[in-house]
Amino acid sequence: MSTVAFHTLGCKVNFYDTEGIWQVFKASGYTQVPFDEPADVYVINTCTVTHTGDKKSRQTIRRAVRTNPDAVVVVTGCYAQVAPAEVAQIPGVDLVVGNDQKSKIVEHVERVRNEQQPFTLVGNILKTRDFEELDVPYFEDRMRANLKIQDGCNNFCTFCLIPYARGLIRSRKPESIIAQARKLVHAGHREIVLTGIHTGGYGADLDGYRLSHLLEDLEKVEDLYRVRISSIEASEIDDHLIDVLSRSTKVCSHLHIPLQAGHNQVLRKMNRHYTVEDYAAKLEKLRQALPGLAVTSDVIVGFPGETDEFFDATEHFIATQHFSQLHVFPYSARKGTAAARFTDVVAEDVKAERVHRLLSLSESLVREYAAQFKGRVLEVIPEEPLQWEASPEAPSFRPGQHPGGKSGFWLMGHADNYLRVAFPVPPGVAPESLMGEVCSVRMNESSSSIQYAEFISQRTSFEPESLPVLELL
User: Fold this and answer.
1) 171-177: long-range contacts (C-beta < 8 A, 24 or more apart)?
2) Mean pLDDT of 14-43
3) What are the b/e assignments for 360-378, b being 16+ CB within 10 Å?
4) Orientation of helix 174-186 relative to helix 211-218, angle to 10°
5) Which domains does the chain carry?
6) Which tens digits make up the pLDDT trace of 90-107?
7) Strands 325-330 vs 294-301: parallel, antiparallel or unpaired
8) What strands, in cross-sheet order, belong to the sheet with 325-330?
9) Helix (H, G, I), strand (E, B), or coil: what is residue 377?
10) What does the alpha-carbon distance between residue 440 and residue 432 come to, in Å, rounded to a whole number?
11) Which residues contact 105 (CB under 8 A, 6 or more apart)?
12) What residues have CB less than 8 Å from 113, skipping those under 6 apart?
């Protein structure tokens, strides 16, 4: 029996695609093995959002070739799409496949084996108009299940290569999404994360059917407990969506709404499709309809032309809008983007200092948002044993151990408002029986990173054929 190994770099969409590719290999009789072991086929699903993504992709490709020089090495994903000739020149690469042909990788592997020569199968993805179906009925190693609802992006932000790597918006058919959701629920997944390259743009290529309508249909899926929207632009939040969210019993009380910059001049230069005033108005409407809503966001610092004054405006805007967490990135020029030609660059040390300031602000925002839930009951889906980074004061913690030495085996997961919450497994309960299930907990300690709670009850249960056993202290 032939074997295949996978390595995925980048975003949730890539991880979904890899799971879908594996299902195609599995249906063709392949067995999956770990990536660091000898395999007949290696599939590397690459990322190109930054130069670091390119570099890591090349390193991973070379690692596969070293592990088994006789294997068929397949490279797909965004790096393969935007730089196919560069990828094909890496010694040992047999097959380079574009982002719109992933479902056909097994066929192409057989062609390589039969003809004993390498192939590059990458076209102009901007001409692709149909969503490529990849069926993922379950996820073996993830508590939350990603469900890809669209691909591509129409925005062409000046800092981003993604439209050239993923093409324009292509929405999945609603009936396919609902069928996929039912499969994931049947497999025991309690939370489904709606994922895409531009998730909030879902339906832009459909006739009057948008994300809000999809959420209404997902509300009817029996035994689906939570739905999370991976990301949505402020410009895509309209009154109908807000109304749907306010009536929903399944959509999480959390939205990730990228800001990128808090000054209109920088936003215009980025080719973002809103002003800070527009963004603030949307947040106000959302919070009126959804009290307690968690809003997380992305921010790029050091974009060309971002003066100290402009950055100060961003910092002030973020502080006044009370986000629940920030993801902060220093600007990195990407060859092929409009922003790469801008000459008013920001020094690297200035970028680093700005990143530090916003990360410090983010910690304060997490602490501020979390504090309001102290003493309240939250529903958490545990995903893993509590992990804690070692420090000079506390150099060693085993998974499941509380950093303060409190007794018990501790699990950690996300509440519906995206707070990371840890709690001890009650005596006599197997930790693995709670993994992936909805648990009611009472939060009794808040912080800027992990919130701590006590177990109250288990809300859901699932009896798969076997459960992985967690190592107890």
Assistant:
1) 171/131, 171/202, 171/203, 171/204, 171/205, 171/206, 172/131, 172/133, 172/148, 173/131, 174/206, 174/209, 174/213, 174/214, 174/217, 176/133, 177/147, 177/149, 177/214, 177/218
2) 97
3) ebbeebbeebbeebeeeeb
4) 40
5) 3-123 (3.40.50.12160), 126-252 (3.30.750.210), 257-372 (3.30.750.200), 377-458 (2.40.50)
6) 999 999 999 999 999 999
7) parallel
8) 254-256, 294-301, 325-330
9) strand
10) 16
11) 21, 24, 25, 43, 74, 76, 95, 97
12) 72
Quote the CA–CA distance of 386 and 403 in Å, as a whole number.
Answer: 9
**Which whole number is the average pLDDT over 363-375?**
97
Residues 257 and 323: their CA atoms lie apart, in Å, by 10
Q: CA gyration radius for the chain?
A: 23
Place of tokens 């001049």: 265
Measure Cα distances from 457 to 268, 367, 377, 440, 465 in Å. 50, 26, 11, 5, 23
Report the pLDDT value the prediction gives residue 466, as an integer from 0 to 100: 45
**Three-state secondary-structure class, residue 182:** helix
Helix (H) or strand (E) holding 454: strand 451-458
Residue 12 scores a pLDDT above 80: yes
Strands 95-97 and 72-77: parallel
3 state SS of 294: strand
Tokens matching residue 407: 């007794």
For 262-283, write each residue's pLDDT tens digit. Answer: 999 999 999 999 999 999 999 9
Q: Among all chains, which residue has been given the structure tokens 């179906």?
A: 133
Length of the chain measured in residues: 473
